[in-house]
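Appendix B. Raw example, untouched.
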Amino acid sequence: MGQYATFYLGRDPFGISILTVQEITKNPEVHPVQLAPDFVRGLVNLRGQVVTVLDVGVRLGMEPREITPQSSLIIIKTNQALSEVAHEAGIVTCDDSVGILADRIGDVVSADDADIEPPPANAMGVELGYLEGVYKMEGALLTILNVGRLLAPPSKTEIKEGQ
């Protein structure tokens, strides 16, 4: 059984493995970074630690997130913090601190691996390479994201499109 931290991009619920989450913060003050790929929203200062903020909505093929009072930042554990868990689960993160920008935070959802289905070919227009699967919740489909793929360095195509 896996547990997933859920969050919303627009009205759509997404989930990531709870094992990859360090913390969640509200109302991030994001400072833009020049010449970064379009899915890199900027940087935040989190108690003296510089955190790169990713707008995964953009990486998934959606419009950029608007930062509102309900916006949150999901801080992903670094390689050092994940060491053994990452190795066992095949999770790839980065050595620097990274945060995922979310429109709002949901609940932690527990799901049996057998209940997670492969993503459908037409998964809301989302880039399928970043998806692990979908889980049927009451009244909604939870799209489960692959954090390792989301955090992987951008391809040359993505860099050119963002500039």
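End of appendix B.
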